[in-house]
Structure formats: C-alpha cells, structure tokens
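By way of example, we now present a protein record of this kind:
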Amino acid sequence: MKFLSRLGLLALALSAAACSNDSTPAAPTTTATTTTSAPATTCTYALSATRASIGAAGGNATVTVTTAAGCAWTATTSSSFITILAGSTGSGTGTVVLSVASASGVDRTDTVTIAGQTFTVSQAGAGLVPAFNLFDPASQGNATTTCRFRGATGNTTSTCQLASTSYTLGPNSIIWYIWKVQYTYAGVPKTLTQAGTSTTFSFGDVCGQTPSSAAGTVSPLSAQLTIIDSNGNQATATSGAGNQLALNIVAFTCGS
C-alpha cells in the first residue's frame, strides 16, 4: 500500500510539472530590417578642347561636353563676335556649336564659358593695324599726349595735329581715313571730323578761355581714327584704348 501511494504522489508531481511547462510563454522573436540608400551622382565635366583658332573669314567651332547622365550644364558668352548656335544648355554628354563672325580689324580673342570651364577663341585679323600720334609743333618737338592752347594773345590759334601711323599686314592698302576729335573748351563741347585720303588731321583753339590758367588747365581730348583698306575692311583706333595713350588739351591764359 505504501508503494502504491508513492506511485500516486509521483504521478501527481509529473502532471503538475507538465501543466507548468505548457503555460510558459515563448520568447518573442525580433526581425531587424536594414535600408541602404543609393549613392548621389557626382557631376564632373570634361571638354574635348579648351581653345580654337579661327581665320579672318570666320567659321564654326564644335566642343563636346562629357559628363554623367542627368548632369546639367550651360554654355554662355558675352563676346561681340562669338554666337552659340547650339548647345546653350544640355544634360549628360552633349555638343556645343560656336559661330565666329568674320574679322575686319586686327587679331582678337574672347571666351565662352562651357560647363563652368573657359573655352578660348582666337581669330586672325584682316591685316589692318590702325594707330596715330599727336603732335604740338608750336611747343613740343616730338609726339605728345597733350595739345597746348597757348600764346601771347587770344588772336592766334594754337594748332595741334594727329598723324596716322597705321599699316596693313598684307598686300592690301589703306585708301580712306576718317578722323574724329572731341573736347570741351569755354564750356562748349566741340566735335571736329574729317574724312578722306589725308593721313593727318589738324585742329586748334586760342588761349585764355575758361577754364585756363597760367600753369595750364587740363581737360580730356578724345581722338579716333577709322581706316578702310582696298578690300573694304575697316578698323578703328581710339585714344585711351588698346595701345593708344589717353590724350588731353591744356589751356593757358594768354601770355603765360
């Protein structure tokens, strides 16, 4: 009997243990998700060339822009003789076509900005080099930058002279000279012109007008020469621009 009682107690213990294990909740399961972003495209640009040389007759230049798909770019210029025919805007690899006008003067150079890079266009000129000097025979022996209105009385005109030193680079010859002089004296703006075959142009004024002084009162003098050659090409030189020096008039009181 004692043995059977022990078996009954053991059975009850095993049954209780089984019930306890069945009621224990399972451990939760966690799933981790990782998201990977595609790297951003870095836009870099390469040009097929960085410069072009065009003859005096003008012509076109083509530039290829190489870059990744979706990368945008532009082509711009402020040049007076270069026009963008095609490719002012683009995306990805593309082509820019430039048109260069015919030249009428000396060699010239300008730029186009393509995809943030500088493209240089050089053009040969038509072979004309306009230039001139100023002379003041009454008071200065050599070429000068000042024309002096000076004398004993206001009855005598002081005369200055512009003389062309222009030349051509080929067999063409200069056949026409157009002169223009501007200055203000005695409160009056003055414009003097001359057109023809003369290589010189004379102008002048008298002493003692306002403003003038014993030491000489300086005012700007603008001089311009346009030359035309036997082929119909023309070019212009202006005082204070390019290789031409700035010029002045100097007005003195009479007798100074």
The chain has one helix and 20 strands.
